[in-house]
């Protein structure tokens, strides 16, 4: 089992590397980074505390369940089981993400993430605590149903966190290299389209790690209709009303202003 402090150390090292990268080669200048970072880091603190509190309870409940007799992965050699598990969990994240855009009450939670008016590394941790708990429960259920090895879970957590930060990083990657990369994995420019204020673009490019899922399930948008430089990030109804405090962000899914499922959902 990987020590928790080691995982935190790897996380901080990766964040530092991406911060230096986006400082040295920014995609575009950021205008609201101070307020955004205060909000996003505050959400990260709340989410982390909640996960530390609830994760043992959720995992203990799953551990008490009898082994799912149809779980396919325990019957495979461990190296193959780990590879298959990583691919299956990435597909699960794709469909979970798509579900949060499709089901109205899930979208109310997820729009906290999409309300960020700019994208950078900090956007990767801008999630409502209830969404974080639901994601944890879904992952725990998948671990039980598929019989996913512990090592695969740890590796996937590292991959998911790494790619989430990479995809939101405000960096410029040369077009030819970006096009080559996105044949295999999701890139920042590909994911940026997903944060467009245009409905059709926001409801595409759901992948986090492998780009094959968007191509396979016909949700891939290669370019924004507005062009990369003119792409507007965020939600239309937060263009004139931006949450100013952590409490407003936490209340966002439950306030009347955000109850309607508008054209960007």
UniProtKB/TrEMBL annotation:
It is a multi-pass membrane protein. Residues 83-218 form the Fatty acid hydroxylase domain. One of its GO terms (cellular component) is endomembrane system. It is found in: Endomembrane system. Its main location: membrane. GO terms for biological process: lipid biosynthetic process; membrane lipid metabolic process. It comes from the Bacteria. Keywords: Lipid metabolism, Membrane, Oxidoreductase, Transmembrane, Transmembrane helix. One of its GO terms (molecular function) is iron ion binding. Pfam families: FA_hydroxylase. The chain crosses the membrane at residues 6-23, 44-70, 76-95, 141-166. This is Sterol desaturase family protein.
């Amino acid at each position: 089992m990987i020590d928790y402090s080691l995982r935190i150390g790897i996380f901080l090292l990766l964040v530092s590397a991406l911060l230096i990268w986006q400082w040295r080669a920014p995609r575009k200048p950021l205008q609201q980074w101070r307020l955004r970072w205060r909000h996003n880091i505050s959400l990260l603190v709340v989410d982390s505390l909640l996960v530390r509190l609830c994760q043992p309870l959720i995992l203990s409940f799953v551990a008490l369940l009898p082994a799912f007799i149809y779980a396919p992965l325990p019957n495979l050699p461990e190296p193959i089981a780990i590879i298959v598990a990583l691919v299956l969990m990435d597909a699960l994240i794709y469909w979970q993400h798509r579900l949060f855009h499709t089901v109205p009450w899930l979208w109310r939670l997820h729009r906290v993430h999409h309300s960020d008016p700019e994208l950078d590394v900090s956007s990767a941790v801008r999630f409502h605590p209830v969404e974080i708990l639901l994601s944890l429960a879904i992952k725990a259920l998948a671990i039980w149903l598929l019989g996913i090895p512990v090592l695969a879970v740890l590796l996937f957590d590292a991959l998911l966190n790494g790619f989430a930060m990479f995809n939101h990083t405000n960096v410029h990657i040369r077009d030819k290299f970006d096009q080559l990369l996105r044949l295999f994995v999701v890139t920042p420019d590909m994911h940026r389209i997903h944060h467009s204020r245009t409905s059709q673009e926001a409801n595409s490019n759901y992948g986090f790690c492998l780009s094959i899922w968007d191509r396979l399930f016909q949700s891939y948008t290669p370019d924004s209709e507005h062009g990369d430089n003119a792409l507007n990030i965020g939600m239309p109804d937060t263009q004139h009303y931006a949450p100013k405090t952590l409490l407003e962000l936490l209340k966002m899914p439950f306030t009347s202003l955000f109850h309607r499922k508008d054209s960007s959902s």
